[in-house]
Each structure stands twice: as C-alpha cells, then as structure tokens.
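hiii so my PI (J.) wants the whole complex modelled not just the main chain, which honestly fair. so below is everything: two entries, each one labled with what it is. i double checked the lines twice but i was tired so who knows lol
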Amino acid sequence: MTTTETDLLGKPLTEQERELLNIYEALKKLAARSDLPPCAASNVRKALMSMWQATNDLSLQFEQLYDLGV
Amino acid sequence: MAYSEYWNPKNETLPREELQALQLLKLRRFCDWAYATTPFHQRKFDAAGFKPEQIKTLDDLRRIPFMTREEWMESLMEKPLFGDLLATDSRNAIRYHLTSGTTGRTPIRVLDSMKDWDWINEMWCYGIWGFGVRPEDVVYFAFGYGSFIGFWGAHYACEKLGALVIPGGAQTTEARIKQIIELGVTTVFSTPTYALHLWQKSREMGIDLARESKVNKVILSGEPAGSIPAVKHQLEEAWGARCGDTAGMTEIGTIMIFECSHQPGGTHIIEDHFIEEVLNPNSDEPVGYGELGERIVTSFGRGFIPLIRYRTKDMVMKVPASTCTCGRTWDIYSGGIRGRWDDMKLIRGTNVYPRAVEAIIREYPAIDEFQIYIWRKEELQDEITIKLEIKTGHEAEWPDIEHKLTKDLASAHEGLRFNIERMDYGVLPHFELKAKRLVDARPVANY
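here's the output for the full assembly
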C-alpha cells in the first residue's frame, strides 16, 4: 500500500489514483523478487511498465526503473 | 460508447501555472538523474559550472548547457556504439533504433528499456487519441518497419488503445491500396508524400479512395508537409478524410507534438512530458509567441539516454494554447515544424545531411565534381539525385561506382533510395571557394 497522500503537485490523491499507485507499488515489490518463475517475472515487469505510464501520466510518480529491469 | 476527448484529461487541461510547476519538478529530478548516471552530462554540466540543485525556477533552465547532435556524434564515434550517453547498462535495453548521422556513415544509435519503449508508444497515444483514433478504428500502417523508428511507436499505441492494427510492411503500393479497401480501414498512417502517392496510384487503378474507402483519418508524420495548408487541403480532398499532423524525432524516440481533432492549424506540444523552448538561433534568447525560432527540447521520457536542452535546428512558431478551441492548455506550434535552421534535408521521412553525403562520395577517388540535387517528382514525391562527374582516365570505373555508391548512400540513410546520374565532364559547376553543391529544387512551402 502506498503511503503517499498527494500527487507530484501536492494535490490529495483521488480514490482511483490511490488504487493505481497501490498496484504500481505492489508490482515494484514483485519485480524486485528473484524467486519468481520466468513466466511471472517477465509478465510482472510488463505490467509494471504499463503501470509506470499510468502513474507517470497522472503525475503520481516520476522515477526510473532500470534497476528492476524495466 | 462515450469517450473522453483527452487521453489524459488531468494534465491536458492543467492550468498553466500547475503545468509549469510539474515541468520544474521533473526538470530538477531529471537533471539529478542525468548528472548522477551519465558521463556525457556530468562532463557538460561540470564544464558549464552547472549543478542540478541550482534549478529553483523554470528560468533556471537557461543555466543548463545546450546539447547538440554534433556532440552526440562525437561521443559515439569516440566510444562506439553508444558513446558515453547511456544512463544505465545496455543489458537493460529491449529495443534498438537509429537515425542517419550528420557526418559520414556513423548513425545515431539509441536504446530503450521496457518502460522507455512503452513511453514512446504512450506519447503517440496522446497524439492519436487527440486526433480521434478510438478502439473501433481499423488502422493501416503504410510503413516499412525497419531500424528507422518511424511509425513503430504509433503501431504499438494503436494496439494499446484497442484499435485493430494492420501492418502494411513490405508490400507494393497496389497491394496496400487493395488492403485498405478490402479490410475497411478507417485510419491510415503515412508520410504526406506517400499518402499522395497512394492516392495517385489508386487513381491509376481506377479507385476513388474518397468514395470507395472507409478512411476518415490520415495521420501524417515524417515531413513538414502535414501542416502546409495547400498539401493538407490536397490530401483531405483526395482521401475524403481529415488529415492530422504529428512530428517526432529518433533522438527522443517519439512524437512531441500533435494536431488535435479541432485542427487549429498547428500542433499541440505534449507539455507534461517535454519542455519545448523557442530561441533565436543566433542570440540564443527566447522569442515570444508568434515569432519564428529554433526549438530546443528537454524530454522526460527516455531515461536511458537523457535528452536535456537539445538543439533540434527545427524552425517553429509557438502560439498560445487558447488559439485552439479544444480546451487543452498545451501551447501550439502554428504550422507544425516549418523548416530547418541548418542544411539538413528531409527526404521521404529520412534526415539527410549534405556533409554526410559528401563524406561518402569523397571515399571514391574517381569522382571529381558532384552535386546533390533534390527535386519533386510529378509534384508528389521527393527525390534525391547525386549528379557526378568521373575524372578523366577513370571512366571504366563508372558501373562499379554507380552500383556501390547507391548501396553505400542507402545504408547510411536507413535504406533511402538515392538516384545516381553521371554527367559529362565540365557540366557541373566546379568550385575553388565556398562550394555550393546542394540544390533544393522543391517548391517552397507557403504557410
């Protein structure tokens, strides 16, 4: 679960933004694991890639993910 | 189904003060990232006495040194293949593309990670959604799918938003026209030149695209003509469809501007992902709305190769967002990309630098004088012809030169076809000083 309360501009997160950010953070945790089978690890990275776009477009985060292979 | 008019309603209608606050925040973080990870930027920032923490307002952008294509080329020639611009290990890349270089045969090579590549598609989503592409559309790409980045991003963007995608690929123009009709295509992606060629060829086949096809949108890229009123009008009449301009560059991987469905006579800047400055190319001072200048781009998307204050040499004229009725708060380049401040030429979507062509020609000692002649075939298609003279005593080498030079020039220019024409000795002008070997005989665009 995200502990962030606001977007990058300091505006309170909406309910849908909080949900998107929660999924994004959960995917980051999964992508950092080294014990996932290839079918899970690859698809988690793909999912994280997609959630990066949604959360970045909505100004919820602006960060790089290369250390996670994304 | 009712859709939002905007791909990202939150940021596309963000008040400009907030938009600028977002740009400032991203700029600070991105400079931090570039300085921490990229020797190229470390070196440049240090040489300019610039530190990312000096960025307090957007005006501080001007403290950051410019980045040029020449510096990029130098870096990758010193440290092949990618120079010292990579911010992370090349093993994190999933995609490679290139664009023709400014000198000789060395291209500019770029890498993208998984999320960078998806961001490239995301920018296309902003643009094509803004022009009206929806999941119900059947989309055709008149595109050859090579190492040139071209419409790759648009292809994946259409898949992402749920449209049915038909990759045209390596087919004849006739076969493409048949597919467009048979498959009920509603949206065509093409360069302006090729869109006109498709129309011309369809007429030869006895097909009236405006009447017999379902195409209602043609999305243009790769050449400035997409925003030249006369060309646009001709295309819209020919296809019986709205034509929307977009423009991008391999250096950022994607488009940074797009025409929305309100067709304001220009292209909106995707300002939550880019900072686009317009400067006087001589003084480097900012120019105001309505004045021509050089566009300088900072892109927040591709972290793999950070692009900060990159001098594009593109000629643009910025006007306020309010010029358009669509409700976006993003400023507009009136007339799209209007031309170049340098000698680069765009031929059927490919960048051609005369000095790079010359460097290749000079590898042939049997060639004496030459001329790069750019012209428009049947008012439709841009052509580039190298007219050349062979030195006396080397005439027997001509067949080999013709064959090999054609191949060499194409391979240094993403497969672009060059015409080679041998002239009788003494026909071409010979120069002692200030050689002028480039002739651009195409009609001048009228905005």
